[in-house]
């Protein structure tokens, strides 16, 4: 199976016309709109000119070529039109006269009209040389009964080189001459199009190429699947369409990024795709570096944080990281959004989240400017693997990668990056450990310094974290647990415990507990439910978590939590039934006497005097003897029924019982 030719993907002009036309499956609507406009326009008068706008990788160059090739294929149209496709980079055109000279050279090279350039040179010393060049071009084209369609990619770079006077002159040409028409493309916002004082204000028709929508993404992926002769894409489209949408969102619908990630995914033989990626990153480095260099220091700081985060971040998070004022951050974000460097995402509040607009620029930033050994460098790839693969696919992919390492088929950098990406997916811990260990051995045999950037396996980190935790070295335990790439529910639960009990940071603990709760961790469910109970917040969530924990693992501690929260919700009978579970076990009285005391107090606070009295009399573990002060507090509330029982209380218990009664009254207010 042949691989996609990356030079052709990143420079479509190197594709044969037949190949490009065959693979052109998206942007078809805009193609038909522009082509039909060209077809029906007789160009008897000056026509509207186009500049297609969109970030790099959105298919602008391919669209220009597709239109040009369609003109070539239309025999009738070709009789009157000459499509001229300029090279993507035109460093030689810095003055307007150079544009006309270049058109003349293209016409000569295409075998359409010879001798034009030489004819222009007769006037090279004339002060009105540019006007004479255009006059020669226009008259010759008229004589040949032809019209010119100029396809100019990166037209923004060309126009930026021209002076204001040349802009005015070019506008005159466009407005007065019916012999040529421009179909251009630009990856940046053209300020002169929106500036009322500039010659080209609102002059061009400027269709915008946005990210692919869900249907277009599906069509593109199906075409890639067809190219690779794999049923994988068809199966995903049919059975898991949500994965297609997740991939679209992750890549921003940018065609080039989708193809790049797909190519890396299917290339599990020798890692050539990673070499191609390196070449592509090298090729765009001058462009992206120039983009960064043009930003102010504050904007550079903001972009650094957003790019390294990969996911969208809030203004508040940016301000905290950069130590800039929120107002300053907001002001800079507006400018960066105007430059199409960041985009904003709506939230449920009035605030926005911000991410890098061009996802390939974000990949470049991670790969080229992210610190070596930083997990974020492979974040994009790990995320793609999890979107595109189910657990079985991931395991197969990991085993193929492992086999390629054992057979020494991979370049060192590919071995490192793919191992690091796979290690951040939900692989079984044993397989992840083997993958990292074999990769480390492979790099050591190559005497590669890359081995220094290989992270420890989660198995290794968890062992260190466990030892630190049981040695009460909670700082070290936290550090190692946070380094774990694919955290289990147990990892999140322990982090929650450390933050709540030892760091006294419930807000952070809650975040960890919730991640464990997502994995249905019984102890995390119970801990979070109990925390909500103690803080008297989120009653319904507490009830839900406590019930789930109780049903998942019916134990003493979570049955107690569930019973307490049922009482809070005034589900008295259910609370009583659940309480019988933990009150039946002697170990509950030995290990959690204070918790049982609290249950009895809340039961009394809910005015369930007779049921509490029943527990004291029927429980086989001698509740009266164990909790005598609470029993006499109950008798205080039942003194009308049992006046002599309360009088039996010894004087030494009076103050304790009064304190208990006061606590019961407070519980009644707190958990009414």
Strand order of the largest sheet: 1-4-3-2
**Structural class of the helices, strands and pairings?**
mainly alpha
What composes the largest sheet? 4 strands, parallel
What distance lies between the first and last C-alpha atoms, to the nearest angstrom? 71 Å
> Radius of gyration, rounded?
36 Å
> What is the β-strand count?
7
* CATH topology-level name of the domain at 481-670: Serine Threonine Protein Phosphatase 5, Tetratricopeptide repeat
Percent of residues in beta strands: 5-15%
- Give the overall average pLDDT: 90
Write a concise keyword list for the protein shown above.
Rossmann fold; four-stranded parallel beta sheet; elongated; 39 helices; 5% strand; 672 residues; Arc Repressor Mutant, subunit A; mainly alpha
Task: Explain the overall architecture.
The chain has a four-stranded parallel beta sheet, with helices on both faces. The relative contact order is 0.05. Among the domains are: 27-194, Rossmann fold, CATH 3.40.50.300; 271-370, Winged helix-like DNA-binding domain superfamily/Winged helix DNA-binding domain (Arc Repressor Mutant, subunit A); 481-670, Serine Threonine Protein Phosphatase 5, Tetratricopeptide repeat. It is elongated and about 125 Å long. The protein is mainly alpha-helical and 672 residues long. The mean pLDDT is 90. Strand 6 (342-346) and strand 7 form a beta hairpin. The protein starts with 5 loop residues before the first helix and ends with a helix.
